[in-house]
Fold each of these.
Amino acid sequence: MRILFLTRSFNGLAQRLYLELTALGHEVSVELDIADAVTIEAVALYRPDLVIAPFLKRAIPEAVWRDTVCLVVHPGIVGDRGPSALDWAIVDGERAWGVTVLQAEAELDAGPVWASEPFAMREATKSSLYRREVTEAAARAVTRAVQRFAATGPCPPPIDTRGARGRWRAPMQQADRRIDWERDAAATVVRKIRAADGAPGVLDRLFGVPCRLFDAHAERQAPDAPPGCVVGRREGAVLRATVDGAVWIGHVRREDRGDAFKLPTAVAFEDQVASLPERSIEVDAPADPCGWREIRYEAAGGVGYLSFDFYNGAMSTAQCERLKAALRLALARPERVLVLFGGTDFWSNGIHLNVIEAAESPADESWRNIIAIDDLTQALIEATDCLVVAAMQGNAGAGGAFMALAADQVWARHGVILNPHYKNMGNLYGSEYWTYLLPRRLRAGGPGAVMEHRLPVPASRAAELGLVDAVFGDTAQEFVATVRERATALAARSDLPALLDAKRLQRGRDEAAKPLAAYREEELARMRRNFYGFDPSYHIARSNFVRRVAPSWTPRHLAIHRRGGG
Ligand code: COA
């Protein structure tokens, strides 16, 4: 079938559905929801059998849904209606939730139901639930709806929705999200912020400045301070007392600056945070009772596990440097297998574009950040006394996807999506030693095919290409459990010393053929042009990206129907 995606952005969920449906042999073209007239034009150009709306914030024009079946993905259970479905589900403490695929009609979210899939809720941000549970359930529900459409045409036998407990919920307002620091317990504060994370955040004040709060984590040890007081800092976050304990606030968006975007709290309030007492803990301190931190190391069964759960997978200069220090610690330990777990939602998305954008000189900060991530990648490549495994529970993009290739083994959960290219960010050339790491892994074809592709690659396809060595685990829990089993077995192999000898020999041979320093120099020469040259594409793309500026047209590589001058 010819399927047109109508979507606000080609986000992770849209990417996943795109990959699922194209793998089933359907042709999918994408039109970003820009204006009704543009949508109507896209439908006229493509004449799709079916329109699917993975992520929309506006109604589909009647001129479209009158003539073509339009299926809308709603992140709610059957009967649930309204634009704040997940927000309410989190605040209400729902334990089970779902995704419903319904047909667009005049009334929002009220059309016939084509498919619905349940999922168990998890203590996590709205974005995290969306990226994991909603995306998995939507992949199943949309596939089923499309199968029904293929089998029965536009008028399938209706699904019985009697007894559904969902109902219309008004858009959640800031008044509904408001934190009452004099009353709300830490768990309530965290839940309120999570229900608004990634957007729109919870409107509050910090250091007397109005701002939106994101990235909250409960702290187990209660400080001796009145509720609402900011009492300390750790990494980029601040600790704020509640009536019963405290919460870490990792990211904020200042409201006193017209053009503000989300930043680590310590960057947004540099002076205020610098004067707070530091409450640092070691990366290898036990999780209980020491609590939240971005980088964590633990060892078990002869294996070291290094997690780096950076918000949105973005890695600033400071974060790369901290991670490199943690890596040094891990490599100095006796464990000879090291698993890099990355973060729960993203393995890594490369350099931190928001922190770069906020710098006095974004070009200089881009340079510092790329040097820091290259140093980290180099340390991984040169870790020849250890077998390194990159274990991807979540997606990886741009430099993050290439950094993973520095590991000896790359394992990914089913459903993980890689975006192993840089070009979508204003034609960045990219570094992270990709010119060394990519060709040595590819099974067929040259690196150009990967770098120019500009489209997401599912883990299964990445395995065919050679970018990934193993794909397993339908859920994150299953994946993590299997990683631990496999890594423990690897550490117990009697030929582990021989494997490490082979690794050292190969590294020596590669270094003799062309030193790492030469790859780095060549890549950085191109990056220097991206950062400091006359073409401002990267700076413009980054500025639009961090400010979430809606695109004014659909990129040609997504819109099949607009190729050829249409
Ligand atoms: N720096 C800062 N923030 C980043 C980021 C980065 N490198 N990569 C992703 N994010 C943030 C996004 O701004 C967004 O923030 P939000 O919480 O305010 O919504 C969030 O992570 C999710 O990203 P989004 O683009 O909505 O996710 P996606 O699944 O649709 O797409 C990517 C994933 C990786 C394709 C896309 O985020 C991307 O292109 N990132 C930039 C990668 C890059 O160019 N890195 C620099 C070169 S190494």
Note: The mean pLDDT is 95.
Amino acid sequence: MLSGKNILIGITGGIAAYKICELIRMYKRNNANVRVICTPNALNFVTKLTLQNLSQNNVGIEEYEINDFKPEHISYADEADIMIIAPASANTISKIANGICDNLLTSTVCAFKKPIIIAPAMNCNMWENPIVQENIKKLSTLGYKILEPESGFLACGYEGNGRLCQIDKIFDETSAILLPRNEVKKKYIITAGGTIEDIDPVRYISNYSSGKMGTAIADEAFYNGNDVVLITTKDIKRPYKIIKVKSAQEMQQAIENEFENANVIIMAAAVADYRVKTKSEQKIKKTNEDTITLELIKNPDILQELCKKRTHQTIVGFCAESENLIENAKEKIQKKGCDYLIANDISRKDIGFSSDYNEVTILHKNGGIKQLEKASKQEIAKAILKEINE
Ligand code: CTP
């Protein structure tokens, strides 16, 4: 299954390091080429000889054992299709989140441009430490796939959250990312963020959308093995195609360029309904009047127009409502003509805009309604994709 794939495993100093021996065997049984890098502390828990025998490759530890024409960390980074850091200690997580490169493993991560999975394992108090949590959040936002630790009896004697996730889960995530994409892939176009409508060279009209929900859906679609194009107003880096746009018109054009061979379109962006009719080329100066009038003109309704011209695509809209959520959403799904509408209650401060959490209701064009409980945007993204693919 993983034949021809190059998997790089980074092991850090934690008791769960012994479990990685089994993970290496799983990858090898599936014909992957496996290379291993250890931090010096990892070798307190597992031997170099064991890892070398299992991976059938040299194990890298020191940064300056240069026996290649390129520095060691660059060779490792270039060769691999994916990197798995497991177990990831609090120390290494925090170093990576802060761009520190003080050993072969962290230097390789810094030079690595392909998907990285991080599976943390540590004492529960360390895992709950706000600094570690902040660093995890930062890495997740930057596109690292975090496989959260599980709860249970820990090697340090504590009962709590911090145990390395199941090895099967790491294997499944790796396979999902590396799967031969032609067999399973669909092309997803996902939009995210609030559009920016210029008034003059220094001012604009926009909204509070953070782009997090759309980006979480794009991440999930990508990690499920699909081709993903994320059209967003935000500056982000991901291992899939990102098209940065500003205005509703630019967003519409970018979608049109990608539309024809797309299978699924998910409009999570908050598109401004109106733009300034004539953008001033010069900064608008203050006058003696107390009021000023801006003339606005309607933006195209991107979602509605896509629904009109679709051939085979599944089209999903979002709706932001501050009152009468379901009633307005039912009306909107009919008006727009999309297959699904994901309804958000924006009156709540604990979910939605800027929050990492959301609680949504999924409406289907045939009248079906499914309410999802409050969960992280990643979990909501998973549930939305599951629902539209069933
Ligand atoms: N949308 C769009 N083009 C627009 C406005 C909205 O494609 N000009 C899309 C959004 O991306 C979202 C859906 O339409 O998927 C619903 O957006 P929402 O703001 O809730 O609805 P509107 O049509 O703008 O209606 P209103 O603001 O009056 O609620």
Note: DSSP finds 14 helices and 22 strands in the chain.
Amino acid sequence: MTQQSEIFKKVISHAKEYGFIFPSSEIYDGLSAVYDYGQNGAVLKNNIRQYWWKAMVQLNENIVGIDASILMHPTTWKASGHVDAFNDPLIDNKDSKKRYRADVLVEDYVAKIDGKIEKEIVKASKRFGDAFDKEAFINTNTRVKDYQEKANAILKRLGKSLEAGNLEDVKALIEELEIACPESGSRNWTDVKQFNLMFGTKLGASADSAMDLYLRPETAQGIFVNFLNVQKSGRMKLPFGIAQTGKAFRNEIVARQFIFRMREFEQMEMQFFIQPGTQKEWYEKWKEKRLNWHLSLGMGSENYRFHDHEKLAHYADAASDIEFKFPFGFKELEGIHSRTDFDLKSHEEFAGKKLQYFDHEKNENYVPYVVETSIGLDRMFLAIFSNSLQEETLEDGSTRTVLKLPKILAPTKLAVFPLIKKDGLPEIAREIVSQLKWDMDVAYDEKDAVGRRYRRQDALGTPYCITVDHQTLEDQTVTLRERDSMKQERIAIDQLSDLLKEKLDVKHFLKQL
Ligand code: GAP
């Protein structure tokens, strides 16, 4: 097992063991690519959602938030292009009867080549020790260069064939590379076909009159169909944005990688309506603003990069992903798309209603252009959670598992312990909890030795712990211990509230935007 998959396995088991994420309906052996958030996961997810909402809605006068429904009139998805174009190329293995995404089979093949490159690097770094220059090795070692060239050529051909809709060539590529079914080892493949990712459902009780609906595959369309309602009722002037968070559903063929690719997930999207012709400028601005939002959480600028799309979706004239370094490599975390006037124009056409803005300065009506920012909440959760989970070797040689979550997002901000369960210490600790719980999520814990209680809170990501001891009885001070440095200091009980509120103030993070 590679080091990367080892780390990822730890992320998944830690998330379950500490009440962050459970497989859905686990007592029935779970449901593939569907997950439930546990008692700590639900709070962390909510905190991430709020951090996004504050940055997008609360801090921008010209952005408002809505909450549109999951079920929408089915014509919405005709107009948006999802009925005709929201497809993945799939292939079945005739022997195992297993279904795969054809592009993912090829990408997995390329990932194996990348794995071979990684092995060569590890071998060489062991051989050369401190003198090892990774960059120079990659650029000069012939075996590594051959692997890289092969991988690049495969990806280039795959991209070209998909773009041209040449599914025969995708199948030919799979056959030429002798890719076998991961289940059965068989190379007996069907042709590659397009598969629509939307989940269907029905509205209405009687079978004859029931209407076929879809569960929304993105939240964005709920914003487009409400564009005029919001603009008129809010007297909004261009440029302005409409934001929302909510569930989206996609019948993903390849659904692995834990909460990275789910069938039911949550999006946080914002459509920014602008004057036609200004889209380039706003697209660049939103790319920068969104990257700054990520950087404000302090998870290391080296873990982010932009990936500008060459192959554009049917609605876009420019698109870029913010990629994050997940345990399985750099992958898309958020998309910034310049969507032109495609969606509003298409809804005008299908609904037969005008969706235009009257520009008082220009004295004319037009359909605004849109720049969209779209991030998966669950994917953001995974980025934060996997980046925060660390194993440290302490000075005494012992190890500790610590979840170094950005403090403002931690599900529990403070844990309060009485040193022992007598001498009036639990009563004082409980009194501190009852005072501070109005301002933050506080936990009380009196089980086990204090050292073990610290470790438990470290694993949950709790940034601060307070211990009430016998000195507290004399001078009304407690020990305040900080998660990352493990430093301890004495603090007067009556100063705790102000001190913690200051340390955990979201404002300090958001001010970096
Ligand atoms: N409205 C544009 C849109 O939906 P997208 O690139 O398909 O664009 C946006 O999705 C974001 O939603 C992605 O960057 C990702 O974070 C998240 N996302 C998409 N599919 C997902 C899935 N199956 N599971 C989890 N998150 C997903």
Note: The first helix runs from residue 3 to 17.
